[in-house]
Amino acid sequence: MYAIVDIETTGGHASANGITEIAIFVHDGHQVLEQFETLVNPGRPIPYYIQSLTGITNEMVEEAPFFEDVAYRVHELLRNNIFIAHNVNFDYSFLHHHLQGCGYELQVKKLCTVRMARKIIPGLPSYSLGKLCRSLDIPLHDRHRAAGDAEATVRLFERLLASDSQQHIPAMLKRGSKEHFLPPNLAPEYVVQLPSRPGVYYFHNEKGKVVYVGKAKDLRKRVNSHFTGNNSGAKRQEFLRNIHSISHEVTGTELMACILESIEIKRLWPIYNQSQKRPEQRFGFYTFEDQHGYLRLAIDKKRKYTHPVYAFDILAAGQQQLRRLLRDFQLCPKLCFLQTDNDACVGMDEGHCLGACEKQEPAETYNQRVLAAIDSLKASQPSFVILGAGRNIAEQSAILMESGRFYGMGYLPKDTGITDPATLKDLLTPYPENEYIINLLKQHAEHSEILVLGHGVKS
Questions:
Q1: pLDDT single digits (tens) 115-165
Q2: Does this model's pTM top 0.70?
Q3: CATH number for the domain whose boundaries are 189-268
Q4: Residues of CATH 3.40.1440.10 domain(s) within the chain?
Q5: Can you tell me whether residue 18 is helix, strand or coil?
Q6: Which string of DSSP letters, residue by residue, matches 25-87?
Q7: What are the pLDDT digits (tens) for 200-210?
């Protein structure tokens, strides 16, 4: 038995909106056996644009029953039947949410006439109820009223039943079928083809644009988790409606998936990703030679396509590190921009500046100490490789950190010997780094086995 449903509401998501009208047609696969329809007082004003769309006004529902008054009857009509609607998850989310608020649980199989029509009658220009009915010459009276739309959905369902020569509808109802919970515009083939492997997945909208990027230890399980449950929030309902296709990239390890996800979020800036989209405030030490031939060591914000000799997250930490270098390598605070006034050099007073700012020390001598300071920074940031599983048994994955900076990652034949960064770089794909990736790799290196280049394996 089937319960073919249509509802009218005050808005697009159940958690903050009410139902204004319900129509339910109980159908045995041949004919309608029972019909229920009623206006419902939503307990809140109906927005003007909704009144204009449906024709249901505040005055019309003023004397109508509240949902709790009809909840028992609605539950009785739905609880033992297959729930059918056009874009079923919308109607189901509202009734599930409001029945639950009245103490009734609704757990039934669902069928979506949008999804059924796409399979049984492919190639139509549109699958909205109005355009679909016009294409199939199905009468549609009282558009955007529950009884009118539900009656048209009944006729559509009967047409689909009669045309289902390939038995798509029974397949949709089988245990394990994904049809009842997938978004209305997503073909199940996109989910079925996902492997149970680590990787990154991309949700695309109708135009093919990426609207969400996610990482997964198990791609199939993670993607399916997006579509389960009955969250009726506006953002989730909009999110699901905008998923039309899925693509993916398998990675050898979950760590690589985390890195690739971060890179792709910052590259594509998908509309539904919220995390990792805040502006970063990373800083770095940069060097340049001034017009007098002295090497300057300065702190600046880390910008795209720039390569600092040392990077850090907090400005105060960088300034503290720079002051240490001034003392340890006898550098000038003026040439390092820690002193920017025209007063006498504080470093000369304290004994660690040898007069470079006053041209009392040759540039060549001063520059040697600047280079030594830079070398000390690089030595404190070792180069290492994180090796892991590949995408198949013949390869291994490799992630390269060089002097504290993320260089890139890729896959090598399993028997490849790794000796130095230069050799490894030829085999890897370089990627942009960011604060999240650097911190992720540092944390991983602290708790896992890594190959420190030049020093062997470190646990």
A1: 899 889 998 888 889 899 999 999 988 888 999 999 999 999 999 999 999
A2: no
A3: 3.40.1440.10
A4: 189-268
A5: coil
A6: EEE-SSSEEEEEEEE-B-SSPPPHHHHHHH---HHHHTTSPBHHHHHHHHHHHHTTSEEEETT
A7: 999 999 888 99
